[in-house]
Amino acid sequence: MNAMMREAKYHTFAVQLMEHLVVPTFVLDAAGRVIIWNRACERMTGVPASAVLGTRRHWTGFYQQQRRCLADLVLEGASARVAEFYEIDRSLDCQTGALSAENWCVFPTGRGRRYLAIDAGPIYADDGTLIAVVETLRDITAQKEAQSALELLASLDGLTGIANRRAFDVRFESEWELAARSGQPLSLLMIDIDHFKIYNDHLGHQCGDDCLKRIAQIIVGETRGDVDIVARYGGEEFAVVLPHAGLDGALSVAHRILEATDRAAIPHHEASSQDRVTISIGAASRNSEMTSPADLIAAADASLYAAKQRGRNLIVAQRSVAA
């Protein structure tokens, strides 16, 4: 009897301890029903314990539509499915049955959008029987947003604010692979400011920087902001990746950029043939003869070189010229 009383006492203490943990925590029994929904979990989700205790509706604290929480995947022994439901799987040793993940969560109760670090682990009886699963949650939104801000800064050109060469390489590779799988067209524009060295040497680096920023703004303004990728490729050269666009579409964009640059009328008194800043554009589209992203870049580069050789302020599309 004393042993039973001690066991009951320890059980009560364990439940009370978990209830008062500062870490949001809930516990499911072996059937997936909520047996503990602590006060920190109530504060985080806005869902009172009375609304979920004894039910399998723990998901309502975190999601608009029914879906598995990490604790459910532990109960099901479904460690292989973590990536199906969570942005990042941080599970280190699935042999123990414990899982760890990270995910954005929009609380249905209006508590906003938060990024959570989540851990879930099994509790076994002395005979090895699974009796419960504990899930704990940490709000790491501030850390995630800081990380995202740093990643964004690392991908942008410090002068113009558009994508830098590193970001271009990564995203262009991704678009190439997508186009190769889907059979969708993919085009590339290479754009160079004509006589930029003369401009920079005569007017100074500050004016040169201003010119680069103006041209970057013009290119961005004539492209699809939510689809196309505009990058500073190097020096006074820019690149525009045009997913789902064939050569005709690429030429249409190139003409708009050329015309917008002409309308901007950026003075260039030292140019050999124009009194304003002009650009040359090389255009190319992916075709069956190309086997890698480098092939498309080489084709667009060759077109750009041809535009320079033919007098500048031109668009050259592979083997054809458009004024």
TrEMBL record:
UniProt-listed GO biological process terms: cell adhesion involved in single-species biofilm formation; negative regulation of bacterial-type flagellum-dependent cell motility
Protein name listed in UniProt: diguanylate cyclase
SUPFAM superfamilies: Nucleotide cyclase (SSF55073), PYP-like sensor domain (PAS domain) (SSF55785)
Domain PAS: 10-54
Gene3D superfamilies, per database record: 3.30.70.270, PAS domain
PROSITE patterns referenced in this protein's UniProt entry, alphabetically: GGDEF, PAC, PAS
Superkingdom of origin organism: Bacteria
Catalytic activity: 2 GTP = 3',3'-c-di-GMP + 2 diphosphate
InterPro entries on file: Diguanylate_Cyclase, GGDEF_dom, Nucleotide_cyclase, PAS, PAS-assoc_C, PAS-like_dom_sf, Rev_trsase/Diguanyl_cyclase
Pfam families, per database record: GGDEF (PF00990), PAS_9 (PF13426)
GO cellular component, one term: plasma membrane
Domain GGDEF residue range list: 184-320
Listed GO MF terms: diguanylate cyclase activity
PANTHER family to which the protein is assigned, alphabetical: DIGUANYLATE CYCLASE DGCM-RELATED, REGULATORY COMPONENTS OF SENSORY TRANSDUCTION SYSTEM
EC number(s) per entry: 2.7.7.65
Top-tier EC class: transferase
Limits of the PAC domain: 99-152
